[in-house]
Specification:
single chain, 905 residues, alpha+beta, 20-stranded antiparallel sheet, 4-stranded antiparallel sheet, globular
Length: 905
Amino acid sequence: MKRSLWITLGVVVLLIGGWLGYRQLFPASRTVGSLVPPGALLVLASDRLQDTVSARTLRTQMSLRQVPFFDEARQKLDRFLYATADTATVLKFVSGRNIRYSLHSISKTTLDFIFYIPIGPADQAFLHRVTNPDPRRYRVLNHKFAGEKILDLVARGNEPVGSFILTDNFLIGSVSGILIENVAKRMHQPLKFASDEPDFRLDDDHLAGLSVRPEVLQSLFSNVGSLVRLFLPEELNLQFRQSASRSHLIGYAVDQIGGRRDVAALFAGQAPRRIQHAYLIPQSTSTLYHIGISDASQFGKSLSNLLSSASSDFLRERFRQIQTDAKPLYESLGSDILLCRLESRTGAPRQVLVLTAQNGKQLANTYQQVAYRSGARAASLPKSYLGHKILLLNVSELPASLFSSLFSGFPQSWITQHGSSLIIANSEDAMLDYLQQIQRGAVWSTDARQAELLNETLRPANFTAFARLNRGQISVLNTWPLGWQNLLDKVDPATGTSALANLENMAYQASYGNENIQSTVILGRTTRRASRAVLNKLLLQKKTEFNAPLVSAPIVTGSLSDSSAQFYAQNNAGQFVLVTPEGDKLVQNNIDGPIRSNALGVDFLNNGRLQYLFMTDRTLYIADPVRIRKEVALQSIPLPAGIDASFLARPRGSRQRNLVALAAHQDGHIYALDRQRRTFIRLLTASHKGTLQLPFQVMTTPTGMDILAIQADGTLNHWRENGTQYPHFPTRVERTNEEEPEIRFIGPALLPPGQTQIRTITDEGQLLTLTGNGLVAKRIQLYRPVRNGKFRLFPDEDQTNWLLLRTTDTEIAVLDQHGKRRFDVRALQSGRNNVRYHRLGSGVELISVKSGGFTMLYDLNGRILNDRPIPSDFPVAVQFDDRTNELYILSGAQQAVQLFSIRLR
């Protein structure tokens, strides 16, 4: 009896096994996963990607179609479907269908999608239209590959639209015929018993799913830093939903630890946390890395283990030097480690590391001790700025030595203490910019949208990496493989922008358990989109009228977009007037003539506030605003005879604490304002008399401050701060032969940041490239029109970039760096013109052209930004607010100061 029972059970098992094996080799139907060719870079799934979305919705919330990967997949499918049927028919067909899209590499530079649309008996009418399109516009060809019939949809001019295969359950198509042939081969391969197909759940809360292969993650983060790649799981299977504010899409995933156990060990015992010190994150942050700590002592032990076995020989050896001093530093850490990479107009790295502390004094002392242990020389005297003592620790890569290679890029450490937190910057400029933003409250905690992003959209996590895309020389796309760039950087003809323009914020967050990594990917934007109705409209925000005409341009203090901003104006009675945010006009004092120079914000009085320095023909004035009393205290310093009152420069990088401003002398010398002696002193002496062409250039170097200036006769000076000139300087730019006209310059020379060659141009249009030792390496004679035009180098106001300018009495032409015309402006008023180049951050660059009593604004392609002229008797002040995408313009005209705004795309 038992024997027959066992035989019966054996037969049943054999039959079941045989049936399963048969179905494995010859399946009745296949899943989507079994149809996807091997090597898919990512797989998307959504039942709403093809839905229509109103223009209002696209402005007010983040849609799936605004995410670059999803948008490209949608466009590929739309191109195919709308070639076969009208809009209503297509939308009815795709509505509610769980469509999948897989992305594949066709060549080293080309990627493309395959789409998989589930179909059933009720879809035969639509499928008939697909296989029998309008013969006046399209036709369907077919061929066999790997035993499968492949249909090719082509336009009447034989342009391919797409290839597709029809099965009992799916319509499978692609723009690429090669990819469809790969699907055909896949259909005849045996199935695996265990499927690794991601289980995407789509319902009212979940809009889409995304699965990414580990090799893809590695390639996309290859140029960001190895440590960032280590924080990522080896595979991501994300489920997307809307954020509470609907401004971002959030993707959740739980993936196995895999080979990330070392990183998980770093966060052992650390509870995931939100960012708690948003008031220390400046507004200009373009990339942010955050590590949350709940147990500083345990974190220090884990980090010590990680650094002791670092792959970098330098970091490993350095950590051995400092290990004994690192322990008390780690133990004094607070809840947040924040690495802020600030927006950079030049592409130069500007980094600030914020270490919050349980004991701020102990943290600062131990950091300095670690610096000395690493070989730093004795500290120089600290500088004072906005109530902070700033100290230079001249030792390289100190943050990386303490916190891993993610924190590299610090050739020096400029440190200060703010509250109980230690602030570390990689350059003096970065530190000063950071402190200015902190002082005026330009931080994330005061920005409602950024605060919402931090407190509602971003999740509690051990690690957060956040990037604001396309912000002033920082584009994530530029670091990606060429195939990804070609796929995503296409411009939509309808809008004139690429899909990446719709995406502003990208964040990855991770929390680490014993077995899994919980990942969150956040995609969206905090900046408002403008409707087409208000784009480029010049809107009057505020108008302040005076009883007497203005005699100089108003001076801006702070941010024009801030409701607390105030400005100064000067009327023809010599009165210096403070205009408060409430519109009050408070006469402060009389000054001895029209303001000639730009205004320079410095902490002249060392009282923790910015004072504003400006010059008249005879005097330098220091305006010290006291907001509480709504007044400005004016102090004055007489100018030495011969000082050019039109230009003040900041002594960037100077090792002399008391020098706060630089000015040129008519003999070619450079004078510096000494705040302790309250007088101008000659800092640099020209070898012979001759006016400097303004603006002269001030540069920060590892040894201090350098100044580059050219005189009208072609004498090029390159001074060190100690008054000496570099070898071979001063040098003279000479003619190549006697037949050429005398060489003259009416514009500056510039050593572009990060470059080694000096650029300048003669007034006759000879573009010169000079080597670091002053020799002419290249001469190019630019085209001169029949009318006589003068050329000059045209740097932006911060001297971070340059163009070329050709001017006549009534025309200007803006040229690129090779002399090719970008655009020109004609019919200007003779003798009443002023042209300026503004780089405002966030990738916004424009040219302001003042002619007579009006100003027009142009982008670098010559497109006019304001729909009507801006009334202006003086050059306008321009600022850009990247939170609202609005351009603010302060203008003085006749007896009024007006504040305008323009909403950009």
